């Protein structure tokens, strides 16, 4: 029984179709179909029943799914222990992050790290977007993920890479008077409070200085979103908070203003390169898991 066939089986079961599983894994659909057929032949049973364009687990497939997931987790554990034999120093890594990506996203990352690297001593630290690069440079963090306000080349002491671009959207609560206007001009915005992001230097980010008269400055994006939803003002909210926590953002509305969208790069920072080595370091392994979760969340 081949481990990769079990992996394909579990992925198809979780995604509900061979096409969706193939897209996630970067494989051809025919490769997955042949692997599932080979596994069914080896086990002498049907693992899926076709329902239109989707697949549903058969009774036997449902019965063995948990065991297959356990086998895959055990295989990952065995591989890790062989790559990190007893007697070697235990590894401790620190991850930094801002809150452009949600708490639930980072919980999933932590869970996967604990599964793939069970002996790793992991620390995760929340900090402001502007603080994280310097914390990596100082050695307080091994890797960090943050949106950059004014990205610049960091020099040889810090590796940085743009992963994607984050859209900041100008929002107000649905019951706010601004949300009732078909189109907003600058004077409309000036008559109400702007909720801004307060960085570690006490600077207000995303403030429309030529428009905003009154501001409410908060130190996290989730606080900004919640304050806007509570009707305390208008302001820019990172799109990942809107799409990844749709229920918490359901009462927000995009304002129809010429400056309602701005793009900022989302970066990863590390002291060591994040290339693909034959024997990846724990930092590289963690980064791979983060990238996979970002792709799964639809933000890459």
TrEMBL record:
Transmembrane segments: none
Residues covered by the HTH lysR-type domain: 1-58
Pfam families: HTH_1, LysR_substrate
Entry keyword set: DNA-binding, Transcription, Transcription regulation
Entry superkingdom: Bacteria
InterPro entries in the record: LysR_HTH_N (IPR000847), LysR_subst-bd (IPR005119)
Family: Belongs to the LysR transcriptional regulatory family.
Designated name of the protein: LysR family transcriptional regulator
């Amino acid at each position: 029984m081949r481990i990769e066939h079990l992996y394909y089986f579990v992925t198809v079961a979780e995604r509900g179709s061979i096409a969706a599983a193939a897209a996630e894994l970067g494989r051809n659909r025919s490769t997955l179909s042949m692997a599932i057929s080979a596994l069914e032949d080896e086990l002498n049973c049907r693992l899926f029943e076709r329902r239109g364009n989707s697949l549903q687990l058969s009774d036997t497939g449902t019965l063995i799914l948990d065991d297959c997931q356990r086998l895959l987790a055990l295989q990952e554990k065995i591989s890790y222990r062989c790559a990190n034999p007893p007697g070697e120093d235990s590894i401790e890594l620190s991850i930094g992050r801002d809150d452009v990506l949600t708490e639930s996203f980072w919980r999933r990352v932590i869970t996967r790290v604990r599964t793939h690297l069970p002996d790793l001593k992991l620390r995760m630290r929340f900090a402001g977007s502007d603080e994280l690069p310097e914390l990596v440079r100082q050695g307080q963090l091994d890797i960090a993920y943050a949106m950059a306000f004014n990205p610049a080349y960091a020099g040889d002491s810090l590796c940085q890479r743009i992963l994607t671009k984050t859209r900041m959207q100008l929002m107000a609560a649905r019951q706010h008077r601004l949300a009732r206007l078909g189109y907003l001009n600058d004077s409309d915005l000036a008559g109400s409070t702007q909720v801004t992001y307060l960085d570690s230097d006490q600077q207000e980010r995303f403030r429309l200085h030529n428009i905003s008269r009154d501001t409410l400055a908060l130190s996290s994006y989730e606080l900004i979103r919640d304050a806007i939803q509570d009707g305390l003002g208008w302001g820019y909210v990172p799109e990942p908070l809107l799409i990844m926590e749709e229920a918490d953002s359901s009462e927000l509305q995009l304002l129809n203003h010429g400056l309602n969208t701005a793009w900022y790069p989302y970066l990863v920072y590390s002291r060591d390169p994040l290339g693909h080595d034959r024997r990846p370091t724990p930092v590289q392994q963690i980064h791979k898991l983060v990238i996979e979760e970002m792709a799964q969340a639809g933000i890459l």
